[in-house]
Amino acid sequence: VKTRTIALLGCGTVGRGLVELIERNRSLIAERSGVDLRISKILVRDLAKERGGVDRSLLTVCPEEAVANGADVVVEVIGGLDPARRLVEDALDAGKHVVTANKALLADCGPELFRRAAERRVRIGFEASVGGGIPVVRALSSGLAGNRIERICGILNGTCNYILTRMAEEGLSFESALSEAQAKGFAEADPALDIDGTDAGHKLQILAGLAFGRSLGRGSVRVEGIRALDREDFEAAAYLGFVIRHLAVGRDLGGALDLRVHPALLPKDHPLAHIRHENNAILLKGDAVGEMVFHGRGAGGAPTASAVLSDIIDLARHGTGPALRIPDSEPAEPADPESERYFRFPVIDAPGVIGLIATALGNHRISISHASATLVSGKADQGSVRILAHACRASVARKAVDEIARLPVLTGRPVALSIESND
Ligand code: NAP
Ligand code: HSE
Fold this sequence. Notes:
The chain has helices spanning 13-33, 63-67, 84-93, 103-119, 136-143, 158-170, 174-183, 192-195, 198-212, 231-240, 301-318, 353-363, 394-405; strands at residues 2-9, 35-43, 59-60, 73-76, 97-100, 124-125, 149-155, 222-223, 242-252, 256-267, 279-286, 290-297, 333-334, 338-347, 368-374, 383-393, 415-419. The protein is α/β, with parallel strands linked by helices. NADP nicotinamide-adenine-dinucleotide phosphate (NAP) is lined by residues 10-15, 43-46, 49, 77-79, 83, 101-102, 128, 132, 185-186, 188-189, 299-300, 304.
């Protein structure tokens, strides 16, 4: 059995999960892979913080001290760009393998870091950056390596999925559901990254880079969050036979890439419709293998530690981790996808208000398949018009919504969701 030492940068939800998992499964790991894993130092911000189960003598606030002591692998689970980027670069420059769960960092400067690692002949493991405990990075980079990947459709943010499940099934308010997700350790240090869709966008950028082998810079994914959703949207969705999920869609359309993250209506028999709470799921379609769905816990200390540990063990065994293709092509043009759509327009109770909205949609050649309205006399803030529309382009729907949003009968921002079928 060979000993491998780990410098752990960060000891929050994921870092502590890793410390506990290594402790719990130490002999199993040694038996299976012939490596005895030892944590040499743990970098934190606050030495006084309570951290049950963590050997306090390992803690330090000094990055240099954390990475010294001849660590074989540096595990970065601090999050964010600063100081994470500098610490990862320093570790690579010192000839250390790096394992990170930091999708924000990889989305921001992944190609530069992978190039640097290649120059130093070391590796970066990033299984934990997408899908929590689901081994989807490894599946794409090795198990499905012989396939042309045509489509990714996923639920990639555990916090959003948790909030949507709790709002729809228990009638919780957005704020209460978010507080629960934060208390359970699912949310980012800044939860705006979750609820505004940025985190899922980072993850889609990483997955799509692997799947499609294209150059994907910052801003390559169109991103929308879940803040605008209201109890009424959940009721309307249920009434119409749908559930609302925060989806990440990636499609290779040849010349263009369709990369987007947004809330969507899914028919109840869609393969991702039953994914609840912090679970994630990724549906991949390969030209040889057909459709596969990976499903499991997408956030939380233990599942994420499981993914981090898989990279550490791979590096200890073979000195390899999954590879991110370094892009060499021009970014593809963004696509303008067509789908059926759901709209909700919050309006005052005024004569002709439904007609105004229907006419505006008609002017953009958006054809209505179902409409309902609740207009409450004397209660200006409680009315709404809900519409299902036949398929139209995203750009057309956006223009129509922007135009309707300016009508004086509107009392708030309209909600527009695409309906995603599984074809
Ligand atoms: P967290 O609970 O906020 O923990 C962050 C850790 O980093 C803390 O121990 C903190 O120290 C330390 N830290 C922060 N800034 C530091 C600085 N300037 N210098 C030294 N130490 C610093 O975060 P987390 O939830 O574990 O997430 C860590 C990473 O994993 C993030 O990139 C996140 O996106 C990713 N991730 C998280 C999950 C999840 O479910 N939570 C899942 C997948 C990926 P103190 O403890 O002293 O404050
Ligand atoms: N905040 C992230 C989420 C953590 O909720 O999905 C897992 O990456």
